[in-house]
Automatic annotation (TrEMBL):
Membrane-spanning intervals of the chain: none
Listed name of the protein: Ferredoxin
Cofactor list: [4Fe-4S] cluster; [3Fe-4S] cluster
Species, as recorded: Paracoccus angustae
Keywords: 3Fe-4S, 4Fe-4S, Electron transport, Iron, Iron-sulfur, Metal-binding, Repeat, Transport
Pfam families in the record: DUF3470, Fer4
Length: 112
């Protein structure tokens, strides 16, 4: 099992999760985060830290695409280990459906 970031992180990018990760497996894009599924040790400490409820275990239904999404971008984006302010759009975008198709950016974030 691994944990993955899903589309509710897009345009929110809360980073509470990165500070509690014991293996530094979060990577930062311009407007979202991802978890490297091969680096995640399945400890689960990140999941309850996400205010947007965007971190899910890969054992939930329809998570295969998110595992591959997280893998793809974690291999090209910089690692993030320190908490930053969420995006200015976080409060209004939390829970908006269809963010992957409408708002996702492939651009990398700044990392640490």
């Amino acid at each position: 099992m691994t944990y993955v970031v899903t589309d509710n992180c897009i345009m929110c990018k809360y980073t509470d999760c990165v500070e509690v990760c014991p293996v530094d497996c979060f990577y930062e894009g311009e407007n979202t985060l991802v978890i490297h599924p091969d680096e995640c040790i399945d400890c689960g400490v990140c999941e309850p830290e996400c205010p947007a409820d965007a971190i899910r275990p890969d054992t939930e239904p329809a998570m295969e695409e998110w595992v591959e999404f997280n893998r793809k971008y974690s291999e090209i984006w910089p690692v993030i280990t320190q908490k930053k302010d969420p995006l200015p759009t976080a409060a209004e975008m939390d829970g908006v459906p269809g963010k992957l198709a409408k708002y996702f950016s492939e651009a990398p974030g700044e990392g640490d």
